[in-house]
Write a structure and sequence with these properties.
The chain is an all-alpha fold. Among the domains are: about 1-105, no CATH class; about 110-220, no CATH class. The protein has 19 helices and no strands. The protein has helices at about 5-30, 35-55, 60-80, 90-105, 110-120, 130-140, 145-150, 155-170, 180-205, 215-230, 235-250, 275-290, 295-310, 315-330, 335-350, 350-360, 370-380, 385-400, 405-415. Helix 1 runs antiparallel to helix 2 (about 35-55).
């Protein structure tokens, strides 16, 4: 491989996937009090890779190369700390003492467990959820401060403050609990909530330029799989969230067209959907179904109905409405009611859907949500009410949060003339 730009792309793609593993291992080696130092070592490892690899080809096993560099730098840090009060002849013995402990932290099993410990530490109940998610993105997903700020529509300075508060909590004694500690079970719901928020920001967040952030979705799924691999957290709620995320993410390739506009479900090319990811979602759903219904399980079941319908016209709308009824009983939110009304319109016609939407409980909470007037516009259009449809699509356009949404609503508005 020649040229710095291609190498940088390879390194940054790889580094995004390795950074969380390296950070978790280094925090184990250096201790949570030195979390900033651990991050510095990870950053130094990336810089070293960029400088070294641009002079030649990328190693056959670049992930192992990165881990070896991080391991050696961690040993150097520990030796400096331990030799401040010691004489030079002891250096060789110090290396022999430290190396086995450092090596143990960089095994696959250890890095997997340390990422889980870090995830649960990030979700301390004393931290607000935006702080929890910012910590997860920074420490476990390899996101820079600017990327975290971009994902959550915040300034880098605000994200720095969130991260500072979060890291202070991680430095407290006992913050990194063992996976067998009862605190892990108590925090599982908070961890799942944080991953769900992370996924939703990628799937249909309010980013002003990007309607879809596949990288955020992928990171949420990766961390969810970590939870499912550990006996302490391999539980039905984890399986339900994984099912929901995999089933939604399987449809991501069809959500945007060549112009970057959102594509409604009925117009998506189902041949582009990721069938392997959908099958994985179905497996997680089957494992989650052993427990009583929860909102996550019901949402995953709805996603499965959409994902496995052979065509939009052959969707089991009666089954979906029944699932939304059950979901609303657990989670009576206006967004759930909105989606139920849309499904009901597919089952019983646009006039019935309009009645539901116009009498929606809590609809004032959707005042800034562009897909509420868009749904009204769609149903008015299907019912032949072109003037009313145009008014609603104009409202949706004013509320659009990204170019993809604006282009989609503009096209719908053009259908009313």
């Amino acid at each position: 491989m020649s040229g710095a730009a291609p190498v940088r792309g390879v390194v940054e793609h790889l580094f995004r996937h390795e950074a969380g593993r390296l950070s978790a291992a280094l925090v184990r080696v250096l201790g949570p009090a030195n979390i900033d130092l651990a991050e510095d070592v990870v950053q130094e490892t990336l810089c070293h890779a960029l400088e070294t690899w641009k002079l030649g080809r990328v190693p056959d096993n670049p992930a192992a190369w990165l881990r070896a560099v991080a391991r050696n730098r961690a040993l150097d840090v520990l030796r400096r700390q331990k030799t401040r009060t010691r004489v030079a002849p002891e250096l060789a013995r110090l290396g022999e003492e430290l190396a086995p402990a450092v090596d143990a932290a960089f095994t696959e099993d250890a890095m997997r467990d340390e990422q889980l410990r870090m995830m649960f530490a990030c979700c301390d109940a004393r931290l607000q959820q935006p702080v929890q998610v910012a910590l997860i993105l920074k420490l476990l997903c390899g996101f820079g401060v600017g990327e975290v700020a971009q994902a959550f529509l915040a300034s880098p300075a605000a994200i720095e403050k969130r991260l500072a508060r979060g890291k202070a909590a991680l430095r407290r004694p006992g913050a990194l609990a063992d996976l067998a500690d009862p605190v892990v079970a108590r925090r599982l719901d908070a961890v799942l909530d944080a991953l769900y928020l992370l996924f939703n920001e990628g799937y249909h967040g309010a980013h002003p330029e990007l309607a879809v952030r596949a990288d955020l979705c992928a990171e949420a799924i990766r961390l969810g799989r970590l939870l499912a691999q550990n006996p302490a957290t391999a539980l039905p709620p984890t399986f339900a969230l994984l099912a929901l995320m995999c089933l939604h993410a399987a449809r991501l390739p069809g959500r945007l067209d060549a112009d970057g506009a959102l594509v409604p479900l009925e117009e998506q090319d189902r041949s582009t959907w990721d069938r392997a990811l959908a099958a994985e979602g179905a497996q997680w759903l089957s494992r989650a179904a052993s427990a009583p219904p929860t909102p996550l399980l019901l949402e995953a079941a709805i996603a499965a109905e959409h994902c496995f319908a052979p065509a939009f016209a052959r969707t089991d709308w009666a089954g979906i409405v029944a699932l939304y009824d059950a979901l609303y009983a657990h989670k009576p939110s206006p967004v759930v009611a909105l989606n139920r009304a849309i499904a009901l319109a597919q089952l019983e016609g646009p006039e019935r859907g309009l009645l539901e939407l116009q009498s929606l409980a809590g609809r004032e909470r959707l005042a800034r949500y562009p897909f509420y007037p868009a749904a009204l516009g769609d149903l008015h259009l299907r019912a032949g009410h072109h003037r009313e449809a145009a008014e609603q699509f104009q409202r949706a356009l004013r509320l659009a949060r990204s170019p993809a949404e604006r282009l989609h609503f503009q096209r719908k508005l053009e259908q009313t003339t």
